[in-house]
Write a structure and sequence with these properties.
With 449 residues, the chain is α+β, with helices and mostly antiparallel strands. The protein folds into two domains: 219 residues, PmbA/TldD fold; 223 residues, no CATH class. 22% of the residues lie in helices and 37% in strands. It has ten helices and 19 strands. Strands 3-2-1-4-5-6 form a six-stranded antiparallel sheet. α3 runs parallel beside α4. The longest helix has 17 residues. The protein starts with a helix and ends with a strand.
């Protein structure tokens, strides 16, 4: 695989070619990846997959017209043809007065932050196999587990580079490791229940032990055996951190520049207003060392920095790339994100809600009748209105304690009301790209099956 410097030079070279071919401006992305994935089931190797890829994407501007092309053929002849095709396409494209590169004066210069994303290591198929087997064995050893969907392990390394025609060129490398187990508990008479556990880390040394991941998967599955039904009505809903993080995904979508510019967000008029309850703070931290979504610069070459999206309940900023910022008369926020093809969109990095002040036991102590949700099903969320309705499974909360499992119910509300009603516990852990503590939301509508 190419080094970051080599990847940066590849991207810069294609940009230079595009300008020589008649583009007024251009930017390019080079992405390379090598990954190894392995799965086992019932103690037997089931699948091994290895992939390697190198791709290059080019975006060119002719006046206010633009076009994007991409290729995995990096031969000289193919790149020459790519440049010619991109410039010809741009000349025929419709004008877009908001299109263009990021403001030149805002580009990142100097040494990038040290984020410790690359441990330089690899794992062999044999090492991955042992990890996957250990995770599955630990899950199957939990009393009550009766079958397995398998254990899995993966390791990858990627290099990502961006270059622009107006003065930016940068690249970085990152490794990633993951480990999972998924098992079933119960029998045909009582019903089979499935659950899983998973962990991912940038560095091999930070990956949770296979035994702990497997044991957690088994215990979760067993706890779900023989679920009951929940009564319908308004009641408090408590969300496990695994699924509570989805609320931050809905927030990020609602405050993206494109949604605001198109007037398709339920938070359209909410900037500078109280969106969450007092005491709730949500931060985005692209500089988190070895974070799963850390990055030294954004998808347009702008510097990135930690920012509070929600401060003490108040919505502080939109997430803006340059195009949406120009359309809204604002400045880009360093949240541009892009793949090899197409124009930039926006994305947060390591997004998290700060921990609250109370333990989980205290959070549920005054709930006489409620639900603790560990799984969400379906996509019933309207980003324009904020209406929310999703299938769920989890556990009852009875007289302040988490009780037996329940399934086949729906939780519903409106995200505006849900955000204002959120109370976070004090159990925040950084395990995923988006992280929240256990969350309590009062006043949701629960419909039993």
């Amino acid at each position: 695989m190419l080094t970051p410097d080599q990847a940066r030079d590849r991207a810069a070279d294609i940009v230079s070619r595009a300008v020589k071919a008649g583009a007024d401006a251009a930017d390019a992305v080079f992405a390379a990846d090598a990954s190894l994935d392995l799965s086992v089931r019932l103690g037997v190797l089931e699948d091994v997959g290895r992939s390697e890829s190198e791709e290059l994407g080019l975006r060119v501007f002719v006046g206010q017209r633009s076009a994007s092309v991409s290729t995995s053929d990096l031969s000289v002849a193919a790149l020459d043809a790519l440049v010619e095709r991109a410039v010809a396409m741009a000349r025929e494209a419709p004008e877009d007065r908001w299109a263009g590169l990021a403001p030149q004066e805002r580009l990142m210069h100097g040494a990038p932050p040290l984020l410790d994303l690359d441990d330089g290591g690899t794992l062999s198929p044999a090492e991955l196999r042992e990890l996957a087997l250990e995770a599955e064995d630990a899950a199957r050893a939990v009393p009550g587990v009766t079958n397995s969907e398998g254990g899995g392990a993966s390791a990858s390394r990627s290099v990502w580079a961006l270059a622009t025609s107006h003065g930016f060129a940068g690249a970085y490398a990152a490794t990633a490791y993951s480990l999972s187990a998924s098992v079933l508990a119960g029998d045909a008479a009582a019903g089979m229940e499935r659950d899983y556990a998973h962990h991912a880390a940038r560095k091999r040394a930070h990956l949770e032990s296979a035994e702990a991941i497997g044991r957690r998967a088994g215990e979760r599955a067993v706890a779900r055996i023989n679920p009951g039904r929940v009564a319908s009505g308004p009641m408090p809903v408590v969300m496990d951190p695994r699924i509570g993080s989805s609320l931050l995904g809905h927030l990020a979508g609602a405050i993206s520049g494109q949604a605001i510019a198109r007037k398709t967000s339920f938070l359209l008029e909410a900037l500078g207003t109280q969106v969450f309850g007092a005491g709730v703070t949500i931060r985005d931290d692209p500089h988190r060392p070895h974070g799963l979504r850390s990055r030294p610069f954004d998808g347009e070459g702008l510097p990135v920095s930690p920012v509070a999206l929600i401060e003490n309940g108040m919505l502080e900023t939109w997430l803006l790339d340059s195009g949406a910022a120009r359309q809204l008369g604002l400045e880009p926020t360093g949240h541009a994100a892009r793949g090899v093809g197409g124009s930039p969109g926006v994305s947060p990095s390591n997004l998290f809600m700060e921990a609250g002040d109370v333990p989980v036991a205290t959070l549920v102590a005054d709930i006489a009748d409620g639900v603790y949700v560990t799984e969400l099903i379906g996509q019933g969320v309207n980003g324009v209105t904020g209406d929310y309705s999703r299938g769920a499974a989890g556990f009852r909360i009875v007289n302040g304690a988490i009780a037996g499992p329940v399934a086949e119910f729906t939780i519903a509300g409106n995200l505006k009301d849900m955000f204002r009603a959120v109370t976070p516990a004090n159990d925040l852990e950084f395990r995923y790209g988006t992280n929240v503590p256990t969350l309590r939301i009062d006043g949701m509508t629960v419909a039993g099956g």
